[in-house]
């Protein structure tokens, strides 16, 4: 899994789901640096969120033909789109996307349903899959990979333009590498 490179909104801590903000120049540079780390793996499928920031990260990392997967979009933040957690907590103390409703956005159940489809697709592949996506959605995807509730994604901090590897030890799903 690769989280997209840095954007103006990710740098500012703004919740970004459907707003299509471009990568910052440093986000593009770091995305390019992923190319050598990912080139020799031999992925059988490469999937990307349809959002520009994820598709551009995939392109710069050497995967311009990544398949767009709608289910990889970021958590829909509804009324909190473009708003920081600090700003939300001014009216909803203790708010997190993991523990509180998102007015006009997705519920954790809705996020779980779509990410379960991604997990099934990855598990059905005959070899390694590379996924380009977003912070909260990829954290939730890791939780679902481990057969945990989506909300357990709160325990997996994920920085921009990092590589994380999900895998198996015998029959148990595992996290092999995180936030590298």
UniProtKB/TrEMBL annotation:
It holds the Pfam family His_Phos_1. Coiled coil: none annotated. It comes from the Bacteria. SUPFAM superfamilies: Phosphoglycerate mutase-like (SSF53254). Residues 1-21 are annotated as: Disordered. This is Histidine phosphatase family protein. Gene3D superfamilies: Phosphoglycerate mutase-like (3.40.50.1240).
């Amino acid at each position: 899994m690769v989280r997209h490179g840095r954007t103006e909104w990710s740098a500012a801590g703004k919740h970004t789901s459907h707003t299509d903000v471009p990568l910052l120049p440093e986000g593009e540079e770091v995305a390019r640096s992923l190319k050598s780390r990912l080139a020799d793996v031999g992925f059988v499928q490469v999937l990307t969120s349809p959002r520009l920031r994820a598709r551009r990260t995939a392109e710069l990392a050497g995967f311009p033909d990544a398949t767009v997967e709608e289910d990889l979009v970021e958590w829909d933040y509804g009324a909190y789109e473009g708003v920081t957690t600090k700003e939300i907590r001014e009216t909803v103390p203790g708010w997190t996307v993991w523990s509180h409703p998102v007015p006009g956005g997705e519920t954790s159940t809705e996020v779980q349903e779509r990410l379960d489809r991604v997990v099934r697709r990855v598990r059905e592949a005959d070899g390694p899959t590379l996924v380009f996506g977003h912070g909260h959605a990829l954290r939730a995807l890791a939780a679902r990979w481990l057969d945990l509730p989506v909300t357990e994604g709160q325990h997996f901090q994920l920085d921009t333009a990092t590589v994380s590897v999900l895998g198996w030890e015998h029959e148990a799903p595992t996290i092999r590498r995180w936030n590298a």
